[in-house]
Amino acid sequence: MVTIFNRKPDRDESGPSGKGISRRDLLKSGGSASLGAILIISGSSIIHPKFAWGLETTNLDPQTMATLIQMARDVYPHDQVPDRFYAIAVKPYDAKAGEDPKTKKLVVDGVADLDKRAGKGGYLGLGWEEDRLAILRKIEDTPFFQTIRGGLVTGLYNQKDLWPIFGYEGESFSKGGYIARGFSDIEWL
């Protein structure tokens, strides 16, 4: 079964069948939206055809991983950061779920709680960021939220391919430090 999530907030996302959007709606939309644009969940994979990346899962189902990707984007929102970096940041939870049954239960139960709080369509079905943030604020003291948020700090920001988007050049000690390498060149301050 293939489920397509179109994260465009200004339309009914369930489609006529209630299982994603129809091919006709997909073609009419031109593939534009956000959770970047479109995620296709099929078998044990999450595929983002517009930006040509995919994520294979082995221990958590793709729906759970897609929810974690959206949660990661909501917890650390950066419009200029493509979804593939968020997918890389949450991928370790799939591996940890295979190694530790407690971690798997924490993640699966946490995502189920998010979906339950979101109502029909689940967390991914909420098209407005404000609605998702309201749910996250209600669970911010839970072990699930704290575990995901804490892992995202390093999982997201330690990706060297992401650093140029933020203008970070990496460590400078081996290059003589920042003082001699443009310390006062900050344009955004």
UniProtKB/TrEMBL annotation:
Residue segments, region Disordered: 1-25
Protein name per its UniProtKB record: Gluconate 2-dehydrogenase subunit 3 family protein
